């Protein structure tokens, strides 16, 4: 341990973060207060009919999260602004997904350390409902209904999310997203599941559909959990390029996690938050990361990019038990929450049950049943062969096995829509009626 502090004293920056708890965090690389802007892609990102959202900055300070006596995150601190693309990088199990879920309001604040703060426009947020209104969240898994077309998927999402918009405005919003996300040519194709039997659209197109479903309500902050997971290098680059263009043209604050970015992806990212076992080892741009690695006496191999090499350094230092606070961050984040207030639209709580919701859900389910050949054929044959009484019983009871995959798949979609505030308890009545 003495050797560790001796090494640490050689690399400490002059401006240390005073509020950091060094016994709980590992800080390896210094950062800059003014990272360079990313190089935007040269693509025509069309304008949306909806007004451009206000600029919302996101600040996280001293965020610590412990569950079942296991510390997942340790004093995570960073800030990001509109038009910036922040990448949360780190090996598997380091807390990337947990961090995004906390920021998006999907984890109870009771499990957070009392000193943890999440601020939007310098106003501290303690309400998960407020976070969900301002932050869109795209999970790693694409929870989509494979027997709906791309356009139908977006139209149903618009019906659930844009309640106060007219039918024409919803149609225009969907058409705009189809153009913006490059989905016009596949708008009438089934989403599919990506397997050999039900191929549907490609993996990159399916991921863009998931992004479109989330941004159809135009959230100013967009969080994505490993949007490039399972994609090839070409589709991964297209997704990141899309996010960079979206951040710049729509003035959105975009944060996404990624396991191993390629060289070409690095060009689109503004800042990096590198995590290791829940602790921040670097926050800043790529240039300052390279400078910090050079100051440590390392040379980045040609076959590795700086991010990959930085994580290799951390792993090797951890294995040698000499990775305790080697460098302090040169950027400190100040929270100014005393007099700042953030105005958000007050959304009135609608009734628990909505007839329109049930109508939309039943309409969507009927399309799925009609397009499920095995289930639809079974019920049709029962109607032909049996009498009215027997048909009624068999229609309601005998197709349970065939309906289970649909039930399980739609349940995941419904739970995601409910977490975004699109649905209420109407789906309980819907499930009771259908199943």
TrEMBL record:
MF (Gene Ontology): ABC-type transporter activity; ATP binding; ATP hydrolysis activity
| Gene Ontology CC annotations of this record | membrane
Per UniProt, the keywords (alphabetical) are: ATP-binding, Membrane, Nucleotide-binding, Transmembrane, Transmembrane helix, Transport
The record's annotation in InterPro entries points to: AAA+_ATPase, ABC_transporter-like_ATP-bd, ABC_transporter-like_CS, ABCG_dom, ABCG_transporters, P-loop_NTPase
Q: Which Gene3D superfamilies match?
A: P-loop containing nucleotide triphosphate hydrolases
| Transmembrane annotation, as ranges | 386-408
Q: Which residues form the ABC transporter domain?
A: 58-302
**Location (main, coarse):** membrane
One Pfam entry name:
ABC2_membrane_7
Localization annotation: Membrane
For membrane topology, the record states:
Multi-pass membrane protein
Q: What is this protein called?
A: ABC transporter domain-containing protein
């Amino acid at each position: 341990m003495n050797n560790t502090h001796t090494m640490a004293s050689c690399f400490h920056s002059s401006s240390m973060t005073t509020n950091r708890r060094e016994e709980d965090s590992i800080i390896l690389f210094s950062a800059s207060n003014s990272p360079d802007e990313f190089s935007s892609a040269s693509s025509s990102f069309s304008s949306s009919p909806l007004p451009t959202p206000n600029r919302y900055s996101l600040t996280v300070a001293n965020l610590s999260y412990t569950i079942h006596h296991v510390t997942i995150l340790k004093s995570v601190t960073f800030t990001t602004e509109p038009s910036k693309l922040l990448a949360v990088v780190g090996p598997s199990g380091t807390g990337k997904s947990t961090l995004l879920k906390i920021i998006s309001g999907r984890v109870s604040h009771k499990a957070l350390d009392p000193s943890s703060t999440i601020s939007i426009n310098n106003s501290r947020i303690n309400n998960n409902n407020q976070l969900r209104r301002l932050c869109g969240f795209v999970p790693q898994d694409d929870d989509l209904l494979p027997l709906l077309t791309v356009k139908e998927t977006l139209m149903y999402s618009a019906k659930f999310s844009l309640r106060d918009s007219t039918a024409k405005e919803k149609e225009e919003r969907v058409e705009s997203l189809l153009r913006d996300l490059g989905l016009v040519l596949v708008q009438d194709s089934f989403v599919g599941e990506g397997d050999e039997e039900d191929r549907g659209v490609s993996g990159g197109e399916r991921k863009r559909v998931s992004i479109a479903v989330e941004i159809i309500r135009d959230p100013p902050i967009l969080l994505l959990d490993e949007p490039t997971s399972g994609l090839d290098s070409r589709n991964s680059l297209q997704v990141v390029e899309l996010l960079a263009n979206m951040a710049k043209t729509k003035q959105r604050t975009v944060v996404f996690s990624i396991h191993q970015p390629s060289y070409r992806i690095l060009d689109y990212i503004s800042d990096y938050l590198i995590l290791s076992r829940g602790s921040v080892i670097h926050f800043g741009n790529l240039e300052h990361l390279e400078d910090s690695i050079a100051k440590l006496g390392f040379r980045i191999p040609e076959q590795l990019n700086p991010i990959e090499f930085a994580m290799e350094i951390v792993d090797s230092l951890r294995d040698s038990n000499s990775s305790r606070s080697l460098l302090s961050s040169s950027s400190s984040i100040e929270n100014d929450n005393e007099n700042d207030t953030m105005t958000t639209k007050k959304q009135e709580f609608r009734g628990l049950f909505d007839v329109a919701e049930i109508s939309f859900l039943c309409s969507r389910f009927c399309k799925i049943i009609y397009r499920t050949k095995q289930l639809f054929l079974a019920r049709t044959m029962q109607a032909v062969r049996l009498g009215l009484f027997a048909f009624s019983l068999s229609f309601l009871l005998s197709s349970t096995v065939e309906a289970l995959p649909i039930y399980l798949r739609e349940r995941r979609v419904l739970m995601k829509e409910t977490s975004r505030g699109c649905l209420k308890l109407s789906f309980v009545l819907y499930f009771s009626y259908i199943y």
